Amino acid sequence: MTSSELWTRANAERYDAEETETSSAAVLGPTLDFLEELAGDGRALEFAIGTGRVGVPLRERGVPVVGIELSEHMAAVLRRKIDEDALPVTIGDMATTVVPGAFSLVYLVYNTISNLLTQDEQVECFRNAARHLEPGGRFVIELGVPPLRFLPPGQVAVPFDVSEGHLGFDTFDLVEQVLVSHHLTREGDDGHYRRDDSRHRYAWPAELDLMARIAGLEPERRVADWDGTPFTQDSGKHISVWRKPA
């Protein structure tokens, strides 16, 4: 069993349409360059591969990609894009599901480790990555830095998007280290908005480093974005790389 919230058929069917910006060449290009370089001549395993926003174009670049995905509906959308023989996907929890073979790269993008709502499960995710890595292989995570600096005393909500078609804000439980992302998405021209909520367990970069150490992985690199921008105290997210000792 996993604490992750399961993506529904409706979520899966509209996911790509709502992620056109993150699927653009401008955004994906540096991501794919980064992952392709780390994969080298080896195989890559994507945890929570979803509809294949990253995995499919990485495979098209010639990197052998395998995926693990909890939602059958998300995997079904991916399957319309590429055959099982070209990009195998196993339905299961990224913290415990094991697939055959060893990989030079395991990666987990777009804040998805936060879908695991307990620290124990996040630690198990690191252990599962280490389990799949060949000696010298890397585990990569893309994750936002918790924006708690924006919370004055007594405030529990932080907006992250205020645009014509979408209003988004996070509310925080500082005791349980859980945030809820609230989305109001405009649908059509009649003024109707769809409301969606999702729960996440936020974690600091240093906490992830400790999880990596528990899993037997060593820190190798941390940057603020896929293009290699240096990570600073003002960075809103990080790309972190840990290496399995040879």
The radius of gyration is 18 Å
Secondary structure category: alpha/beta
Tell me the quaternary state: single chain
- Measured between the Cα atoms of the first and last residue, the distance is 32 Å
- Main sheet strand line-up: 3-2-1-4-5-11-10
The number of helical runs is: 6
Q: Residue-averaged pLDDT, rounded? A: 94
Number of strands: 11
Major beta sheet summary = 7 strands, mixed
H/E order of the elements?
A: HHEHEHEEHEEEEEHEE
Percentage of β-strand residues: 25-35%
Shape: globular
- Uncertain stretches: none
Helix content: 25-40%
Question: What can you see in these coordinates?
Answer:
The protein is an alpha/beta fold and 246 residues long. The chain has helices at 9-18, 25-39, 55-60, 72-79, 119-132, 205-214; strands at 44-47, 65-69, 89-91, 103-108, 133-144, 157-162, 166-173, 178-187, 192-201, 218-223, 237-243. It has a 7-stranded mixed β-sheet. It has a 4-stranded antiparallel β-sheet with strand order 6-7-8-9, with no helix packed on it. Helix 1 crosses helix 4. The longest helix has 15 residues, at 25-39. It is globular. The relative contact order is 0.14. The model has no long low-confidence stretch (mean pLDDT 94).
